[in-house]
Amino acid sequence: LSNGKLVSQKVNKNGTRTDTWRMDLPHSTYLFMMAVGDFKITKDKYKDKEVNYYLEPKYAPYAKQIFGKTPEMIKFYSNTLGVDYPWNKYSQIVVRDYVSGAMENTTATLHGEQVQKTDRELLDGNQESTIAHELFHQWFGDYVTAESWSNITMNESFATFGEIIWSGHDGGKDAEEQTRYDKLESYLRTTKNGESPILARFYYDNKEDVFDNVSYPKGSLILYELKNQMGDAAFYASLKKYLTDNAFKNGETHQLRLAMEAVTGKDWSPYFNQWYYNGGHPILNVTYNYAGGKETINIKQVQDSSVQTFLLPLKVDIYAGGKKIRKNILIKDRDQTFTFDVSGKPVLVDLDADKILVGEVEDNKVLEDYAYQYEHAPCYKNRIEALKFAAKAKTAASQMLLLEGLKDKSASLRLISVQGLDLADGNVKLKALPILVQLAKGDKDTGVRGVAIAKLAATGDTQYKNLMLDGIKERSYNVIAASVTGLAKLSPKDGTSALAGLDADTKKHISGSIAGLYAANGSDEHQQFFQSIMATGNRGEVFGAIGQYFQYLKNNTNPTVTENGLKDIEQVIERLKLQQYLSKQLGAAFQTAADGKTKQASAITGAMKANLEKQAELFKNAANTLNGQ
């Protein structure tokens, strides 16, 4: 596979074959690609253009399940941008050991192996957002390419924006809002006090520095906020002008601004100066007060003093007197107060009602506010804020809100609600358990099923054992893994017996859960499972299993198993040079295990006493070795 069109294939006398690909349209050199290997091609099309999927033969039967939405994506992006897909074909290929997640080579996107999944793996999630991201690059990145790495926002912010709008087209408004929320959280996790680098960075130490959460998620949200301010029609007309004016050439942020000004007749320099040529984001601390028919909102910008003061046109929804009233406000100072006439004390004031702010809001609300917000405010962000507050509050009233969340239309919010439940509260437990059983058995999202199974297992009630034994027979690896982990708590012997019915491929996918089950069981015959990982596993595999191996050794009562296991751990630490990561932690754990075995031995007599004393000695010696004594 290469860029452009395959124009000839010639079989040579020496057994080789010469393929000739022609790329008639100009594109940047870094977008050239060539891939050669044993791939099976699945053919699709958009209009009269080939859309092909190159996969390893094992995964070819699932090509349409992996990539099958691509023609609809091309149609959606073409119609939305007003610029039809500009190239003569579009192929996608999956390769191994690629240095990055994916690469938007012109007409021939390359994906890393994580995109390649069987139908069973696809039950637990897909790479659709990556597929959408790389496709949008065919316009923003390939058709018009960033003029320099300083302008990488013209590639990556747009491709990430493409993920957002596709999620809305394919999954609806709630899905789009969830994608935006996730992008914002991804960006905010890398910041402190509102500080972050400039989006259009003309100074950097290394070009790799610009491939970050500012250029990707933050930049995409800045575009979405701009769309909200400008209106969809003007925004997409501006993108069309930018693309057509700069087709098969380079583009930069100033050209985007000029295209927008030409379409709208408005000066967008203040917006670009604030969001593209200055860094950081606003943090708004908001307080509310009602008195004498007036609602007062005080907003302080509390980001670090080194971060600019932002100009923020926002919408506010006021819920009062059985009605919702929308007001427009313009925040421009560090400390600002807005006052509105209302028909009665509001039950909720929803700042940034469209949830487009690229920043943080410290809202100073109480549970009563969030409960009303969850039921009446329309956005995904309204609901997730309410449920997260309830999960942290851990009060009887907040638990009632989480019970409502178990029925939310969004799988991610059902999952948060399950995780936040406190089943130590008898009233909550009584109401939650029947719903949790329903979710565990039949939720359409396998992630929700998995956390519901885990929640039931945490009760320690063996009445749920059969539910988990049934879960092991499911096709979803998430559900199987959760069921195995649950049985490790409720009935390790039954769980171990059930594993016998699983094929090798399934066992490979749920090896972490199997490790937990074997650790809980502690039977001699399962040591080989851990020894194999210690002997041949890479760092990731060893880190994932070594804690479970330690638990296995604690739960086993055979000194020979203990001695061999401690040698395995000592050897893998040396093999992978893990001393700085594990020696101190495991040294303390081994000493704790030695003390525990000594205590157990003191309470009994006979052969088992001798075994436990020997194990205590082995753990103590291993601890001393790791601690350098």
Structure description:
With 629 residues, the chain is an alpha/beta fold. It has 3 domains: 5-267, Neutral Protease Domain 2 (Neutral Protease, domain 2); 283-364, Immunoglobulin-like, CATH 2.60.40.1840; 522-629. The protein has 26 helices and 16 strands. The strands form 5 sheets. It has a 5-stranded mixed sheet. Strands 14-11-10-16 form a 4-stranded mixed sheet, with no helix packed on it. A 3-stranded antiparallel sheet has the order 13-12-15. Strand 12 and strand 13 (323-331) form a beta hairpin. The longest helix has 24 residues, at 579-602. The radius of gyration is 29 Å and the shape is globular.
Could you provide a short overview of the structure?
The protein has 629 residues and is α/β, with parallel strands linked by helices. The chain has 3 domains: 5-267, Orthogonal Bundle (Neutral Protease, domain 2); 283-364, Immunoglobulin-like, CATH 2.60.40.1840; 522-629.
**Tally the helices: what do you get?**
26
> What is the percentage of strand-forming residues?
5-15%
Spans with pLDDT under 50 lasting ≥5 residues? none
Q: Give the name of the CATH superfamily of the largest domain.
A: Neutral Protease Domain 2
Helix content: 40-55%
List the defining traits of the structure above.
26 helices; five-stranded mixed sheet; 629 residues; Immunoglobulin-like; Neutral Protease, domain 2; alpha/beta; four-stranded mixed sheet; single chain
